[in-house]
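Narrative summary of target 7.
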Amino acid sequence: MVRVLGVDPGSETTGWGVVEGDARRSRLIEYGVVRSSVKASFPSRLLNISDGLEKVIERFAPEACAVEEAFFAVNVKTALKLGQVRGAILVTAERAGLQIAEYAPRLVKQTVVGYGAAEKHQVQEMVRLLLNLSSVPQPHDAADALAIAICHLHHSGIGNRIRAAR
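Modeled conformation, tokenized:
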């Protein structure tokens, strides 16, 4: 059993979710978001995200952090900002001594839904089913973070089994 913090990066809303389990079963520990004011300077938002995730890590003591990889954005400025948000998240996880893994959005969808081009509502519903929740986690940023954590539970076990076999 491993405890994983999944993170869905965003400069205004960064979703997070903590799950525990393995490739066969997982259970929800907690989820939420770190919200940053659109009126705040961008460096201030980065600090807010880092501080918020530090509190989550202190409170729930995950062993691993799974982060969504950057996707290709039409707007270069948006892509650069997302990269900076991811950097703040990665530094926070590294500083806490967590094992860090990054997953492409298509792989997360493929793992959780079984289809790499799944729509947001399909991912949310599968997260609800996999974690045996009564309703879909809200907001969607938190549901996405939980999907990333579930993806890590499935894929990290494979790596561990390959390393053990060697």
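The chain has one domain: 2-165.
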